[in-house]
Design brief:
Blueprint: H1 2-17, H2 22-39, H3 48-59, H4 68-83, H5 87-92, H6 108-116, H7 121-133, H8 137-141, E1 148-149, E2 154-157, E3 166-169, H9 172-185, H10 203-215, H11 227-238, H12 243-250, H13 255-258, H14 261-264, H15 275-279
């Protein structure tokens, strides 16, 4: 459908101008294409009742228990309508409630078990690095050798989510492991090379490493690769890092995103008292 191709070009330009990721664009493209194939017409040509029936069917799909297909379709359509200036159509779409589930956190014993499970040094290093610096999967596979500064003990994360750079501390412990890994594997260009020469690790490969090693542990929690980042954030809060510093370390755009970890961290409770007593040292 030529008209749809033209809209997709506009969509691509808008996503780029707003600094959103390629994965966001691909997700919107895929959902909108499925919609057009189903109706054999552009979204603006479909009436509200037909759209709602279609979305209800997606929401009830037993193959998508998290309703991810439904949610992503709504996001894609809303973006599409706003792109065309059809705000009434965008507003008429169902309102999506934010997921209130708390992230699953690994405890320190579980982390140690996970990190000693891989038999390959490369796998053990990459998993430990993710936790040590609170990295997203895409961030770790995009790391180049020059992004790790052993002398200054920093890692430079370039153009990650929200198209921002940030600097995070390089753990002295992981620095030892990284040096051993680099001496053994001799990576070129990228810190973690893929199977083909000159390529980087893929997200699929990285997720596979986590999943396969997790199976070999006694861990029963439902966790994934991103759980390492959640665990990093929670543990830092428990160890006294303030929420504003944590926001910057994680690269969050808004502190409200970071505040979810206040619910996963375990703090010692302080009994209610008057600050006047502590002012004069009488408490």
């Amino acid at each position: 459908m030529p008209e749809f191709k033209e809209v997709l070009k506009k969509l691509e330009i808008q996503v780029e101008l707003r600094g959103q990721s390629k994965s966001t664009l691909q997700n919107y493209d895929r959902r909108l294409a499925l919609f057009v194939i189903h109706f054999k017409a552009l979204p603006e040509e479909i009436c509200e009742d037909e759209i709602n029936e279609y979305l209800v069917a997606l929401a009830r799909d037993p193959k998508s228990p998290s309703r991810s297909s439904f949610k992503h379709m709504v996001y894609g359509l809303r973006y599409y309508y706003r792109l065309l200036g059809m705000n009434k159509k965008a507003i008429a779409l169902p309102e999506l409630k934010r997921d209130t589930k708390l992230p699953v956190i690994l405890n320190r014993s579980e982390l140690k078990e996970l990190f000693r499970t891989p038999s390959l040094l490369k796998q053990r290093t990459v998993l430990t690095l993710i936790y040590s610096a609170g990295l997203r999967g895409q961030e770790v596979i995009n790391l180049k050798i020059g992004d790790v500064d052993f002398e200054r003990q920093t890692i430079h994360i370039r153009q990650s989510k929200y198209k921002k750079d940030r600097i995070v501390p390089l753990s002295p412990t992981i620095a030892i492991g990284l040096k051993k890994y680099m001496a053994a594997e001799n990576p070129y260009g990228w810190l973690f090379n893929g199977k083909q020469p000159g390529t980087k690790y893929s997200m699929r490969g990285l997720s596979w490493i986590f999943r396969e090693n997790l199976k070999k542990t006694s861990i029963q929690k439902k966790v994934n690769l991103h759980s390492l980042k959640h665990t990093y954030a929670t543990h830092l809060l428990e160890e006294g890092v303030d929420i504003v510093t944590l926001k910057d370390l994680l690269g969050h755009a808004e502190i409200t995103i970071t505040m979810i970890y206040l619910h996963t961290a375990q703090f010692e409770r302080t009994n209610a008292h008057s600050p006047l007593d502590t002012l004069y040292g009488r408490r």
